[in-house]
Structure to design on (758 residues):
């Protein structure tokens, strides 16, 4: 790769690299684009599992203790497993591989104009470690006792002794799968940061780097710096479970709260690890389809870094009712409210980007706008959770469930789909169907709100999380219709994704071939062929002359100015 | 709109070094999480002195000396690599590996004596922390030994830069021990 890194390779070398066998091309590939597709495939497969678990869970909540079609009856133990594995899968095995693994790997080298990651073999090790983590997690469903059921946050004492949940091997494998997943994304993160720092094309200064790359590397840095304490905590948990240490056992000097501190010290930055890449995708889509420069590029970069820094000192807002020292509530409330400042800036910058633009309502843009609207809703309910006095009332209710689905679901699905529809032509060289894409968007938007909006109400009415049968509680019986509405919404939303699946399969088989730059965008990936060949560029690397969002310039001939276009030829 | 072509690459910063530093940052956070947990627990409750009186300060001090010396030899290995002096490079890599093995040997003796005396990982919160922290550190020493052994045995991969990066990791492992020794043995 040394030759390739130097940038100037011969045309024969490019062709030589392109002619490899099946295994080197599709399975043991060091090509960042193939690794991105491998992450995408694994993530989409897990989406299916995570969605299935959610649907079964919602059935149980709407019609408790009736047999789920094709599954059978669900007791409280299985319900606990469903909640645990749904959360674990969606955060660690769907959001991260798709938003970081797939988008990060595909976009970073293309957008900064290099041929591959800084450490291509480490990149392959990363995706294979993730595949191993996937295998371990999948196997955990089938071991005696079933999969983990101590909640996706794995709080001790529930998780610290096998006797408490009745799950021994399932939970040990859960810890192992998490550890492998962390290792995979640590390798990925080191690669992203090094690549973006070292391998930018000539002319690609830091303030010409596209926004999604900034968001990806900030997310990678947050992950690298926050996951360590949780790894330490997971080691302690595993040792507590297996060799009898007493970190989380209060009767011999341990403290279960230690886990909550270590988990959320990681957990809050992790929220941004998932959010930032999605935010980045939306920030790429908005200027392209508004035909306007991104509003406040430098300030968004600054706001992202400030939000990332602040995310390390907000973690105890997840623990207001945990029994920690109540004097901590005030400082953590203040830092939490403070973190809404940079994010509010980013949201206003997005709206200002749209202001008086020539908006093109293509599918990626619809999903980006959907993200914006839904994320604002989630951000507003976040204020109730972030300040201790109101959080003490709503904590651990379905209000919180609604809040984080409005933020995380909008990030992973609306942001993810915006990016997917936007970069699909570049990734696979085919055009997706616009009518099907629009249908997919509108149905997803409607059923997303049918599913999650009512949960605010039932949460305020007093329904707490992780109860298997709401009808056991007399106070909740009058609100049971809300659970039914939400469940029907879930099923419709899952069914809607068939439109997406149909669209993708149809396009891959019989879609129109994508031109090099179908959206008339500026960033470098649109200068490479669709799909880009191995090593991305021909004999010479592209040279960058301007920033990524030069749209509708009065002095330019076209209403866009690709970053690699010599300005002398643009007039 | 400014249109200029500036070279973005940062001179004198090879990719391997940037990568290793980011990796070490995440390692620091992992040991940092452990050490912070230990300090919060230790400051927040009593009864630690009796437990920590049973570790051998003498053996811990000898081990500290061995690790610090091996940090010296790993620097000399890098210097030898830069001078392209292969015999000296192999000598100092070998001494570093021996230092690491010696450290692990003494650690094994300590573990054996302690477990024989009934101080197992389940014997209380101090011993939980003691075995987890020193055990995790010992695994890192082992990883460092493997790295240096690869450089020692495979002349093909032995470049000055790789010797330097392996040395960077070895120094990190030493620095962790510099924190663990006073926290677990002396306080």
């Amino acid at each position: 790769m040394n030759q390739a890194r130097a940038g100037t390779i011969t045309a024969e070398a490019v062709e030589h690299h392109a002619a490899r066998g099946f295994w080197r091309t599709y399975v043991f590939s060091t090509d960042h684009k193939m690794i991105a597709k491998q992450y995408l495939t694994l993530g989409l497969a897990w989406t299916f599992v995570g969605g299935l678990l959610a649907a079964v869970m919602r059935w149980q909540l709407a019609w408790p203790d009736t047999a789920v079609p094709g599954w059978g009856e669900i007791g409280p133990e299985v319900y606990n497993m469903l909640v645990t594995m749904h959360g674990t899968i969606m955060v660690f095995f769907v959001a991260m591989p798709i938003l970081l693994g797939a988008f990060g790997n595909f976009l970073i080298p293309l957008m900064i104009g290099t041929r591959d990651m800084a450490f291509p073999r480490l990149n392959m090790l990363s995706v294979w470690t993730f595949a191993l983590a996937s295998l371990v997690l999948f196997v955990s469903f089938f071991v005696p006792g079933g999969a983990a059921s101590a909640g996706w946050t794995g709080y001790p004492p529930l998780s610290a002794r096998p006797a408490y949940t009745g799950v021994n091997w399932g939970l040990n494998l859960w810890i192992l799968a998490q550890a492998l997943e962390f290792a995979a994304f640590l390798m990925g993160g080191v690669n992203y940061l090094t690549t973006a720092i070292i391998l930018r094309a000539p002319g690609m200064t830091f303030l010409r780097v596209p926004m999604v790359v900034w968001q990806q590397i900030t997310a990678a840095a947050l992950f690298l710096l926050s996951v360590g304490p949780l790894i330490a905590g997971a080691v302690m948990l595993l040792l507590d479970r297996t060799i009898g240490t007493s970190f989380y056992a209060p009767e011999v000097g341990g403290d279960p709260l230690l886990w909550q501190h270590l988990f959320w010290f990681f957990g809050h930055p992790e929220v941004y690890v998932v959010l930032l890449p999605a935010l980045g995708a939306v920030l790429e889509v908005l200027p392209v389809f508004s035909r306007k420069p991104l509003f406040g590029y430098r300030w968004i970069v600054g706001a992202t870094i400030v939000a990332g820094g602040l995310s390390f000192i907000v973690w105890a807002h997840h623990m207001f009712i945990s029994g920690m020292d109540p004097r901590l509530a005030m400082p953590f409330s203040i830092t939490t409210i403070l973190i809404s400042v940079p994010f509010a800036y980013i949201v206003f910058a997005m709206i200002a980007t749209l202001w008086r633009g020539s908006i093109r309502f293509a599918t990626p843009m619809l999903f980006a706008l959907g993200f914006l609207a839904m994320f604002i809703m989630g951000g507003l309910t976040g204020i109730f959770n972030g300040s201790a006095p109101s959080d003490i009332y709503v904590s651990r209710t379905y209000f919180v469930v609604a809040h984080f689905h409005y933020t995380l679901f909008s990030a992973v699905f609306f942001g993810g789909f915006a990016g997917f529809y936007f970069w699909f032509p570049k990734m696979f060289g085919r055009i997706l169907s616009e009518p099907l894409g629009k249908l997919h968007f509108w149905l997803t938007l409607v059923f997303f709100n049918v599913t999650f909006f009512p949960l605010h109400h039932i949460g305020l009415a007093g329904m707490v999380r992780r109860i298997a049968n709401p009808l056991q509680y007399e106070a909740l019986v009058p609100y049971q219709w809300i659970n039914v509405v939400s469940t029907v919404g879930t099923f419709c939303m899952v069914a809607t994704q068939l439109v997406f699946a149909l669209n993708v399969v149809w396009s891959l088989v019989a879609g129109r071939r994508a031109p090099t730059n179908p959206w008339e965008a500026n960033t470098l990936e649109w200068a490479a062929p669709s799909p880009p060949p191995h090593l991305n560029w021909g004999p010479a690397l592209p040279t960058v002359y301007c920033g990524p969002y030069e749209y509708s310039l009065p002095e330019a001939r076209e209403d866009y100015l690709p970053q690699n276009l010599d300005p002398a030829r643009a007039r | 709109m400014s249109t200029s072509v500036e070279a973005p690459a940062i001179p004198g910063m090879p990719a391997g070094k940037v990568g290793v530093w980011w990796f070490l940052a995440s390692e620091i956070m992992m040991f940092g999480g452990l050490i912070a947990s230990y300090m919060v627990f230790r400051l927040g409750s009593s009864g630690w002195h009796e437990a920590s009186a049973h570790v051998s300060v003498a053996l811990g001090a000898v081990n500290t000396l061995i690790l610090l010396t091996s940090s010296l030899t790993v620097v000399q290995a890098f210097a030898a690599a830069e001078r392209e002096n292969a015999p000296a490079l192999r000598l100092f890599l070998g001494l570093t590996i021996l230092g690491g093995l010696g450290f692990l040997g003494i650690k094994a003796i300590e573990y054996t004596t302690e477990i024989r005396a009934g101080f197992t990982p389940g014997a209380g919160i101090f011993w939980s922390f003691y075995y987890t922290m020193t055990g995790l550190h010992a695994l890192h020493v082992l990883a460092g030994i493997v790295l240096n052994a690869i450089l020692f045995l495979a002349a093909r991969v032995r470049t000055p830069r790789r010797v330097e990066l392996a040395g960077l990791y070895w120094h990190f492992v030493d620095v962790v021990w510099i924190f663990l020794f006073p926290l677990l043995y002396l306080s």
